[in-house]
Amino acid sequence: MAGKMRRSEASTSKSSNSRGETVVVDWGRCRSSCGYCKSAGRTSISHGLWARSITVDDYQDLLDRGWRRSGCFLYKPEMEKTCCPSYTIRLRASDFVPSKEQLRVLRRMQRLLDGTLDVKKTVEVVDDADISKGKCSCACHEVSSSGTKESLSAKNEEKNRAEHIVNYLSDQVDKAIHSCAESGEFPCNIQLPNASVKQVSQAKRKLLVGAEDLMYSSNIAFQIVATIRRVQAAERVMRHDAENDTVSPKVIAEKLAASLSQLTETSGFSISACNGHINFYTSTTQASSSEGAQIVIGSKESAAGCKRKACCMRSAKHPQGKRRKLEIRLKRSSFDPEEFALYRRYQMKMHNDTPDHVTESSYRMFLVDTPLVSVPPSGDGRVPPCGFGSFHQQYVVDGKLIAVGVIDILPKCLSSKYLFWDPDFAFLSLGKYSALQEVGWVKENQVHCPSLQYYYLGYYIHSCSKMRYKAAYRPSELLCPLRYQWVPFNIARPLLDRKPYVVLSDHALLQDGESLPPRTAENAIEVQQNDNGDEDTNDVLIDDSEEMIEPESESSDDESGPETSGQTLENCDVGDILIGIKDPV
């Protein structure tokens, strides 16, 4: 597809599954200055295609070969020549494990909806560790020496009791693990990790809705899955096998919780599995949890050294306010005046664009127009209820539009293209929140369309700090630019630490203790000759640009299309470029 076709030639192909027709025009090499490394020259090099129409199956294949789209313009970085190599990054939704920060984002939104988060004035929560050291922000930080001794004595007694319970529960979980291994539910030929049960602090329980009775929790299921995957990955490399599915932490936690059910009678705890965590409650009433609300262990017990710790905790609370309603609406890509008004405000406020730069035509060309041939729902398990194609996902709070995610829904994935949001709601980290919702959407719709398994986050540039957030959606994979194999990010990262362009599938050599093959002198000479500043006859210079906007709120990456005349474009808007294009003959 990226071959040296003449620009006037069109590539057409009919989809084998009768989902429409793909018609593209090769546009050749495109050069621009780089929005990532801010190089002085036009060092960002990609290959471009104009798409008059493209089936969702063909676009899925193009994504899996390193292509992306901006409106109706498709492009692919020339990885060995461009200044900042861009690797396609994706995540298997069923394997996603949210980080502590991502969980905080979910809880913050929930507090907003519950009316317990003050939107106009944020109240600084006293740090647990500072409270425990007597650093209270209220007047009760001055405690008498006798009161301190009594507090320390009670603290030590409580600590010893909690330690005894933790050891007991850890032993019981270990027994359940061995029991499952002996029954064949877990591999018995590998060394499984020892269980670790931790106490949930009072502060953590207060943050989680319905978790007042939660006392202890274990994340051993995640450790077991990680161990099994490492062993299976090593075996696949030795046998050159294809990737095989591994049981998820959620399934393992449920099996272990079922094996521990007898503890309810002997210990007084009720046990339940919550998104991969094994939770122990003080009563038989099990707290209900929503998707993504895992328990995070690790903070110290709060207010241990303060006799009036209740006043400290009360000072950190937000007053009860009005409950809010969040609606997430998915609609086909089309122009919406309310969306455009939000986009215009977002671009001018967050990216300092001038009003004449944020035009309706540029918005349409960038985020509304799409070459994807839409596919309606089929009801046969091959297409999700919404169908395939380009969509806008609206986030509406109490009737007010606060964010819009521009996405493509394809046979294997949800591909996130752009997100814009209301600057007044920046405190909600809507980039992270929308990404978590999109991952959740993929998981929910696997029931209707089993082939829909992945979440694509666009391009990952290791040398760009603004791109690092994408690797926080674990466990992610990067696409090898040569062999088009998917390589786990934790394996690719040390390779990318060495140099920007890497054949990621060479990771097998690194695992075997061998060094990567160096760039040959012939290759170095070839690259130098092709990138000496002289433009090839099929080069098209394009405007200064960054890549497509990703689902994170911290960075927004715009795309540009080529100009018909082939002249250098200086400070042009993407819409202005696209307006001058006529349909190829």
TrEMBL record:
Compositional bias per record (Acidic residues), positions renumbered to this chain: 532-561
TM ranges: none
One Pfam family it belongs to: ATE_N
Ranges where the N-end aminoacyl transferase N-terminal domain occurs: 32-102
Region (Disordered) location: 526-575
The protein's name in its UniProt record: Arginyl-tRNA--protein transferase
Role played: Involved in the post-translational conjugation of arginine to the N-terminal aspartate or glutamate of a protein. This arginylation is required for degradation of the protein via the ubiquitin pathway.
Domain N-end rule aminoacyl transferase C-terminal: 338-480
Enzyme Commission identifier(s): 2.3.2.8
InterPro entries in the record: Acyl_CoA_acyltransferase, Arg-tRNA-P_Trfase_1_euk, N-end_Aminoacyl_Trfase, N-end_Aminoacyl_Trfase_C, N-end_Aminoacyl_Trfase_N
Similarity comment: family membership: Belongs to the R-transferase family.
Keyword annotations from UniProtKB, A to Z: Acyltransferase, Transferase, Ubl conjugation pathway
Substrates-to-products reaction catalysed: an N-terminal L-alpha-aminoacyl-[protein] + L-arginyl-tRNA(Arg) = an N-terminal L-arginyl-L-aminoacyl-[protein] + tRNA(Arg) + H(+)
